[in-house]
């Protein structure tokens, strides 16, 4: 395996994910500076203490996540859980890279594209294949007999129960999806002509919209829907640069 500079890894990730194109809720890219050279990259969903500790055990020089440490509007004091996470990263000289919306949006390796791939959704290759704010939502088709059958398929693929708001025998063909906490994209999915919307979470209003608009809604878990982008990007960049790469999935019921 190769060893590359932190700057080289940063440039490769930025070139792939194009963070400058997005208006996001926190900083994308290098969030915590560690050692100057990287030989082993660990990817995960969230920069939790459990992931950081697991990465330390793996001998990681860098961690790549979807959910980083810093978000717009949060308390800026380094106390409690923030101190615990940062102290581990700094003590072991580990670089932390985080990409939020750019990791959702990548057309092949992002969370939405990878979830569509695993669920067998054929995303439209033209402009019809995107919807919603910053074109983060994906739209395509999947041959399925009913909303209930699709919900069962999603549950089986992700290994967890899902919430379906629809008559189970409702016919669906056009599938919209946007991973994580994308409840607010439901109305855009309806406007885009979706028969069913798949996302991580559901809030109270979406159940009413689903019933009143005749569009099925499947909530499959925030973490469960976003387990695929970080390892896909991590594996791609690691192969490109000759780095060792390990994906660590920290279980999360949310």
Could you name the key traits of this structure?
Udp-n-acetylmuramoylalanyl-d-glutamate--2,6- Diaminopimelate Ligase, Chain: A, domain 1; 10 helices; 7-stranded mixed beta sheet; 254 residues; 14 strands; single chain; alpha/beta
Explain what you see.
This protein is of the alpha/beta class. The chain folds into two domains: about 5-100 and about 230-245, NIF3 (NGG1p interacting factor 3)-like (Udp-n-acetylmuramoylalanyl-d-glutamate--2,6- Diaminopimelate Ligase, Chain: A, domain 1, 3-Layer(aba) Sandwich), CATH 3.40.1390; about 110-225, NIF3 (NGG1p interacting factor 3)-like (Udp-n-acetylmuramoylalanyl-d-glutamate--2,6- Diaminopimelate Ligase, Chain: A, domain 1). Helix content is about 35%, strand content about 20%. The protein has ten helices and 14 strands. Strands 7, 8, 9, 10, 11, 12 and 13 form a seven-stranded mixed β-sheet that branches. Strands 2-6-5-4-14 form a five-stranded mixed β-sheet, with helices on both faces. Strands 1-3 form a two-stranded antiparallel ribbon. Strand 8 (about 130) and strand 9 (about 135-140) form a beta hairpin. Helix 2 packs parallel to helix 3. The longest helix has 13 residues, at about 230-240. The protein is elongated, with a radius of gyration of 19 Å. The two termini are about 35 Å apart. The mean pLDDT is about 95.
């Amino acid at each position: 395996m190769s060893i590359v500079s932190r700057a080289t890894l940063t440039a490769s990730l930025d070139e792939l994910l194009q963070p400058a194109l997005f208006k996001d809720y926190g900083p994308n890219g290098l969030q915590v500076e560690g050692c100057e050279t990287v030989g082993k990259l660990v990817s995960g969903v969230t920069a939790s203490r459990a992931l950081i500790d697991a990465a330390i055990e793996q001998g990681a020089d860098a961690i790549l996540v979807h959910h980083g440490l810093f978000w717009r509007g949060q308390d800026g004091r380094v106390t409690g859980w923030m101190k615990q996470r940062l102290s581990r990263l700094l003590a072991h000289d580990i670089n932390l890279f985080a990409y939020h919306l750019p990791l959702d949006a990548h057309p092949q390796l992002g969370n939405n594209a990878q979830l569509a791939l695993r669920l067998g959704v054929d995303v439209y290759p033209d402009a019809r294949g995107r919807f919603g704010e910053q074109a983060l939502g994906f739209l395509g088709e999947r041959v399925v007999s009913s909303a209930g059958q699709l919900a069962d398929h999603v549950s089986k693929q992700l290994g967890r129960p899902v919430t379906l708001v629809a008559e189970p025998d409702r016919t669906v063909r056009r599938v919209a999806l946007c991973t994580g906490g994308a409840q607010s994209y439901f109305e855009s999915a309806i406007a885009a002509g979706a028969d069913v919307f798949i996302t991580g979470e559901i809030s109270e209003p979406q159940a009413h919209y689903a019933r009143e608009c005749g569009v099925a809604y499947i909530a499959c878990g925030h973490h469960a829907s976003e387990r695929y982008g970080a390892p896909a990007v991590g594996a791609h960049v690691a192969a490109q640069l000759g780095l060792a790469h390990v994906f660590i999935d920290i279980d999360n019921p949310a």
